[in-house]
């Protein structure tokens, strides 16, 4: 208590002793300086400021303490009968948590005020700490994302050239050199990805995709990838699918594959003989589309006291300097974070020297199977491809990747040059880098889409090729008008598969284009017979609503309807609705009433011609 009169401190001490014996310790500061020193030295949990004589008042001390010792709650106390009975407003504005009149004090009132002050300041400090922690996490995530981009860009050239060199004639010794380069380059890339994932998990910024995928295909890819390592160690690697498991699902196949690859890889690493078995079965809860995954091995096992430690980041069960198994120790931490983000729980059971089993359950949504063909049709004329990238190394690497293909390649080094080229030349496909000088790839894509709308021409597929691989970056690409988002480092196979997919789609769309007025026959995807017809009915009812919204210039509502079409059409079997929805959303965001009317008319005509079979 800071007060010129020690008797006031004695009174306060007596009241608190009466309220709660032996709980409070009250010390006295006779002046401004002693009171401030006590607060700055954290010698108290709460400070009561009473009457102070001299040039600086209790309000002055309160103001300075609020700035220099904000962690200490302050209660301002004045003598009774003062001229300003509204002084509590002044006190609150100055930073006091409460205001008391000495003559009105009771033991209960004083005790309650102090407890309130302490708890309130604890809550404020907790909020402040959480805010600072969030800001630090955001800064860390932004830093790691930036560093990831800067590291991925040279890695793209390093790994790309290593893969290209691997396909050239090499001696046995040269093959060993290149294989070492490829193996360690891939390991470095995995570490970059893991650190970025761990940061996103810790900061709560990890986002999952929701796309259709085939579960059996994902598991096969995991087993194929791990088979080489298992074979080198003489291990048997098996996978087992329980009968009746749904395999056509909606979810995040990339993250599921990452989890399984990591867990299977760990099982192989810690197993010297025997087998590793990946089992997939329906969830024990009985919920539809909940899948249980278990990875069992016959390896060294995990001691009981280390069972939870293995999920801590940068930790292994064996932390000695002579441990037999390397690694950064973040794989299981990332796996647990990913599983929890997907709504599941990753657990482990083990017997030392007998083996371990790691298991988790994830609930997915059903999805229709994709019936598109796997092979890309041959083009009778060269495919005209515009490659836009500010790095000459990346442009050259893509050129090497596409060598031998029937493609006509055009190179530009920034978005502005790409737009100018697009205005004077026709292309069948565009590969667009995102971070470039002069004009970035997103701006260039939006500009190209605007040119297409003005010409009323069909949109050219634009594939974003960038080192930024977060879901937010993918959404930005899609919003700008990109058809796909490819993440560097990009392998030759990945690039060619992506291009082949869009060549196939274009060829399929051209051959299946019906004559004007002809019925468009849409096959209902398996398992969706009960929900597709109502979905189509709802979309048809939205057309008059769109015309009304256009008449009212309600572009925001039109953008939402277009976004809904874009996000749902393909899942219900209407791929054309996805494209029409994207065009509607983009035109609505630009408040382009003339183009919107044409898009709504196109949608109306399409829906009128659809016939479910």
Element layout with pairings:
Blueprint: H1 6-19, H2 32-40, E1 47-49, H3 58-68, E2 74-78, H4 87-94, E3 98-101, H5 107-166, H6 172-203, E4 211-214, H7 215-232, E5 236-241, E6 248-251, H8 253-269, E7 275-282, E8 290-297, H9 331-341, E9 347-351, E10 355-363, E11 365-366, E12 383-388, H10 392-401, E13 407-412, H11 415-424, E14 429-432, H12 441-455, E15 462-466, H13 471-480, E16 484-487, H14 492-512, E17 520-522, H15 532-551, H16 555-568, H17 575-589, H18 593-609, E18 610-612
Parallel strand pairs: 1-2, 2-3, 5-7, 12-13, 12-14, 14-15, 15-16, 17-18
Antiparallel strand pairs: 4-6, 6-11, 7-8, 8-10, 9-10
Helix pairs in contact: 1-5, 2-3, 5-6, 5-10, 6-9, 7-8, 8-9, 11-12, 15-16, 15-18, 16-17, 17-18
Note the beta-strand portion. Answer: 5-15%
- Spans of at least 5 consecutive residues whose pLDDT stays below 50 are 316-329, 369-379
How many β-strands, per DSSP?
18
Mean pLDDT: 81
CATH fold name of the largest domain: Heat Shock Protein 90
Strand order of the largest sheet: 5-7-8-10-9
Major sheet size, sense and barrel closure? 5 strands, mixed
Helix content range: 40-55%
Radius of gyration over C-alpha positions, nearest whole angstrom: 33 Å
Oligomer: single chain
CATH class call of the largest domain: Alpha Beta
Helical segment count: 18
The domain count comes to 5
Looking at the overall shape, the CATH architecture of the largest domain is 2-Layer Sandwich
Our measurement of the CA-to-CA distance between the termini, rounded to an integer number of angstroms, reads 84 Å
* Overall shape: globular
